[in-house]
């Protein structure tokens, strides 16, 4: 008995999306009237802790996320966002309130 095929014979497998794989795939998006460069990062590629500007929570190493910066700012102004926070950036308030014991970095 041969193993079951999950795709019909002769069907091409869909190409991997660079956004999901986290390799390359930098694109641009418009937000607040400015062009932003957005690059997905795979979980295995992240090795440091980052603070998400969308929710003010920590992004631990090994968690996939998005790096975004304004096109004219350059790489020094990159910000690391949770994917969900980046997708919900238009629905968030402009000022996120920290809890009393949250670190200030």
Account of the 3D structure:
The chain is mostly beta strands. Helix content is 9%, strand content 25%. The chain is built from two helices and six strands. It has helices at 18-21, 83-87; strands spanning 27-31, 34-41, 50-51, 58-59, 65-70, 79-81. The strands form two sheets. A four-stranded antiparallel beta sheet has the order 1-2-5-6. The chain starts with 17 loop residues before the first helix and ends in an 18-residue tail after the last helix.
Reconstruct the topology from this structure.
Blueprint: H1 18-21, E1 27-31, E2 34-41, E3 50-51, E4 58-59, E5 65-70, E6 79-81, H2 83-87
List keywords for this structure.
mainly beta, four-stranded antiparallel sheet, ATP/GTP-binding protein, single chain, 2 helices, two-stranded antiparallel ribbon, 105 residues
Distance between the termini: 59 Å
Computed CA radius of gyration, to the nearest angstrom = 18 Å
The level of helicity is under 10%
In total, the number of strands is 6
Catalogue the unreliable spans. 13-23
The total of helices stands at 2
Main sheet specs = 4 strands, antiparallel
Protein name: ATP/GTP-binding protein
């Amino acid at each position: 008995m041969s193993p079951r095929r999950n795709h019909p014979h002769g069907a091409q497998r869909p190409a991997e999306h660079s956004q999901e794989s986290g390799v390359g795939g930098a694109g641009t998006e418009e937000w607040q009237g400015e062009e932003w460069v957005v690059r997905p990062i795979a979980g295995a590629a992240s090795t440091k802790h980052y603070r998400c500007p969308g929710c003010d929570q920590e992004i631990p190493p090994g968690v996939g996320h998005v790096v975004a910066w304004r096109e004219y700012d350059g790489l020094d102004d990159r910000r690391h966002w949770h994917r969900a926070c980046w997708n919900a950036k238009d629905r968030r308030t402009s000022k996120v309130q920290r809890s009393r014991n949250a670190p200030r970095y």
